[in-house]
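Minutes, project check-in
Item: structure for the 162-residue chain
Input as provided by the requester:
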Amino acid sequence: MDAETGEKRWQTAVNANVGELNVASADGYAVSGGHDGTLHAFDTETGDHAWQRDDLDAYFVTAIGERIYTGGDRFRAIDPATGRTEWAFSGHETDSFAAPAVHDGAFLVPSDGRLYELGADGQRRGAVEMIDEVSTGAAADSAGVYVGAEDASVYAYRHPDT
């Protein structure tokens, strides 16, 4: 949509169930993803389909800066123009990753029972064990990191480096 007028600029259909699709935009591309793991990228000006990937276990897609990030069996940095994986973090064998928060240049990535701190290059800086399995993404501020869990609670943690 045009941000000033609200007029629709382009529209395209993707194969996803209602409520399972999310969209992120970075570097001139809108990338859609859903629980089926397929990612579609579109040029934000024209709506032209740029690329598609169905080889990822991607439960969500989010944009931070000029990159797209996905989570599922791995937390991945994706080039929005090409769809190429720039790096992937796998953590423990059983981890499933939720949407990250960013604080002081680090990714704070919740997973099944762990909160990982990763550098911009995807290298692990630290981790803390969490009380319950995470079902939502993370939020962060100068005081700490906040995650929602399967027990319908929100938990607050100090930053992993403190």
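Outcome recorded: Residues 91-162 form a domain with the Thrombin, subunit H fold (CATH 2.40.10.480).
No further action items on this chain.
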